[in-house]
Amino acid sequence: MHCPSIIGAAVSIPGSFDGSVVQDAKSQQRISGGEVQDLDLEKVDGELSASLASWSFGGTVYRSFDEHITRSVPMYSECHELILSLSDFFVRPDSIVYELGSATGVLTAQLAQRHASKLRRIIGIDIEQSMVTEAERRYGNPSVVQFVEADVRSYKFEPSDFVVSYYTLQFLRPEERHHVIKAVCEKMARGGAFVLFEKVRERDGRLQDLVDQLYADYKLGNGFEPTEILAKTRSLRSVLEPSTSAENIAALREAGFSVVGLIHKGLCFEGYLAIK
After folding, report:
1. What is the tens place of the pLDDT at every residue in 262-271?
2. Residue-range domains of the chain with CATH
3. Other beta carbons within 10 Å of 154
4. What 8-state DSSP symbol labels residue 41?
């Protein structure tokens, strides 16, 4: 939640916490080779801080993640409701459901509650141990909900009817995104659905400039300081590489989904429904 969890998602960034930035204001250090090194971190929101090109969802980020992401992404909670409504069309008796980049488990738990009488199992996958631990603390229910610390790039999916990636794949390299989408499609039952939300890049430079400015205005209106917005943008260098809307749709079609459509757009954030 992912925005896997910064912008986005429900996401986590591939990799382990060893050698990553500890991102609360009280622990502004890097752990590397058994030594603790000071870093020049910049505040991005409250106690969340990050250095240049080093954003991560590990460490204590889980403490502030839900509030931060809700303030950062337009209609973040409303699109949870959209996904829940969409799930009614695809979750069947004895279904297996996945969320890729489940972060603190909010959406996974909502899906589990909505379909408790139908589900065989719902699995939230996240690469950050701290996120998985927090999700289990809040929502763990071995009979229905399972949170797994794993890398979606190498995860072995079971046959499923409904899979969600909520601002997660944008943190992978483009070729890795294609691999994950194909793996999801290959194991999906016919008539099943993959819901993909991503931050996107506009193809036209002028439109990109307008969207960037409108998004900055949105974050200012939600209480972020200009310095925090800049620090967040700087921390995402080399970490977040958005695709265009056309590239995302092409990736879904190339993976084998027969029906692909845009279901949400809010500034630089889009959601797609792909049906096998």
Report:
1. 999 999 999 9
2. 1-276 (3.40.50.150)
3. 10
4. -
